[in-house]
Structure prediction request, 325 residues.
Amino acid sequence: MTERKGNLMDVRDDIKVLDATIRDGGLCNNFAFTDEFVTELYKMNVRSGIDYMEFGYRASRNMFKESDFGKWKFCKEEDIRAIVGDNPSDMKIAVMADVGRCDYKTDFLPKSESVIDMVRVACYIHQIPTAIEMIEHFSSLGYETTCNIMAISQASTDQVEQALKMLAESSVDVIYLVDSYGSLYPENACELAKVYLAAVEGTNKKIGFHAHNNQNLAFANTIETMSYGVSYLDATVQGMGRGAGNCAMELLRGFLKNPKYNLYTLLRFIEKYMIPLKEEGVVWGYDLQYMFTGLMNRHPREAIEFTSKGRSDYSEFYKALLDNE
Prediction:
């Protein structure tokens, strides 16, 4: 698959936009969103035509203390229902289940008893067998499923091809290409996307893309991979997400030509809720320290620590990263 799909004026019916603000953005404030914030985000997403809203993680309450986090680290059924009721809208509800960090056999109801529509299984490449076991379990319960393979930029070609072969033979509905470290450029993001798309050719499975903005390329990589056939697109309001953040929802909505995606309602939400969040001191977004880890294709944990300490000695930080290459 080498041809671009559609053009800049087309409306593609296969495109699905997923709002990951609460889940990825929750990594910036320990998931301490107010109920009002989450309720208004839900209403805004419904009015704006968003296809999926990811509420957060369903993390293990045996591994993580509930008192240490906001409720969206755990996404209990009753907490989601307190926001959405029975979710009478067309927008679907998603949660993320991290391999090794959730109690998936006991913490999920059958889909018929849950307001959740989709479970997104996040894993590293060496965890694919466990991820597939989880996917089959969620599928048997009636959920839509995705597999989000993290840190793909550090996996070998053989690993990627083997993982995709295994997933193509599984029950998964969507396989996500995840640029965890924000190290991809449009050219190699597209080459990887083509490998993913080729792996599911002849199946009903779709490919998604989840970007990080370490090199200010999250939006560019998202629309470039989309142009070759990737159809599930993650974004967050004002790019709110771990470290450098994600593809900004306002950029994506401004780009997509489908009239169902409403930009005005999103801008009203930003004015009322996102600006105060930043004024409260919640920090995310592009900065030099994240550029460095993106360039070096490494986890942003050191850059996150640099940020948390309020440092601005960028040159010293860069030199220290080079010393640890």
About this structure: The beta strands are 16-19, 52-57, 92-98, 118-123, 144-149, 174-178, 206-210, 232-235. Residues 124 and 150 are 5 Å apart (CA to CA). The chain has twelve helices and eight strands.
